[in-house]
């Protein structure tokens, strides 16, 4: 059972439940491909005002589209997991949790060896 209470900080809470919702190899591959896409989209969106002219709108639209595609694909990946994501508490929670996962929690999962452990465990359960 996942602890849905958030007595700790968002990052601590998200980290404590993260491995349970990231075990399926297909979901892991989707995250490995789409987290960089989300990051690139975020950077493109943030840099779009520097583009000038009509390019501002195209850069912003491209950034938003990249972020949206990444989220849609990750949503499909999460549907493959036994442990479903904890429901969002509202629009602020959506933004905070998504950005925390993409920019902090998933990279931490990879760098800490959690991704490799989940990948290897996936081979044993199939």
Task: Describe the protein's architecture and organization.
The protein has 126 residues and is mostly helical. It has one domain. The chain is 70% helix and 0% strand. The protein is built from five helices and no strands. Helix 1 crosses helix 4 and helix 2 runs antiparallel to helix 3. The longest helix is centred in the middle third of the chain and has 24 residues. The protein starts with 9 loop residues before the first helix and ends with a helix. 17% of the residues are buried. The model has no long low-confidence stretch (mean pLDDT 93).
- Count of all domains: 1
Low-confidence stretches: none
- Span between N and C termini? 22 Å
Amount of helix: 55-70%
Order of helices and strands: HHHHH
Provide the structure class: mainly alpha
Mean pLDDT: 93
Note the total helix count: 5
Strand content: under 5%
Radius of gyration: 16 Å
Main sheet specs: none
Note the quaternary state here. Answer: single chain
